[in-house]
Design goal:
This protein has 150 residues and is of the alpha+beta class. It contains six helices and two strands, in the order ααααβαβα. A two-stranded antiparallel sheet has the order 1-2.
Length: 150
């Protein structure tokens, strides 16, 4: 029998047997569970709450004018806001957009939800570009994540 995931992704109508897909795990009683609260690399700061309010009409106009989708628009707006509120930050600002991986996996017949997360990174030269150029860069990056073989 071939790889059951490839069979499903290629559009086969019948599912493989459970034994072919199931992963058998061995538990290791000595392994500690992951805890971010005990990880010295993680620092917590006081929680801040911000709201971003944009009318539906403005969202549609921004998307038409700036070569974007609502996901790209809000990802870019949030990245710019985070950058403006934290001018001392030197790390990249990364937002993620859920994407459909069917085209990248060449699985157009697949009826499941092969979703992935496309990271949109706001750093370097992109910060000095106009909003419209930034939206074009983010949209291009998002499209590249859907290309097969990436």
């Amino acid at each position: 029998m071939g790889n059951p995931y490839i069979q499903i992704m290629s559009g086969e109508r019948s599912l493989p047997d459970f034994e072919d897909v199931a992963v058998k795990l061995k538990t290791d009683g000595g392994a500690a569970a992951l805890s971010l609260f005990n990880d010295t690399r993680v620092t917590f700061s006081k929680r801040k709450h911000y709201q971003l309010r944009v009318s539906e009409k403005q969202v549609v106009q921004y998307c038409r004018t700036n070569d974007g989708t609502p996901g790209v628009l809000f990802s870019l707006l949030m990245s710019r806001a985070i950058d403006k509120l934290n001018p001392e930050n030197e790390l990249p600002i990364i937002s993620g957009i859920a994407i459909n991986l069917r085209p990248a996996l060449n699985a157009t017949m697949y009826k499941g939800s092969p979703l992935g997360l496309a990271p949109l990174i706001y750093e370097g030269k992109i910060k000095s570009k106009s909003f419209s150029q930034q939206a074009t860069v983010f949209r291009g990056r998002l499209l590249l994540w859907r290309v097969r073989g990436r």
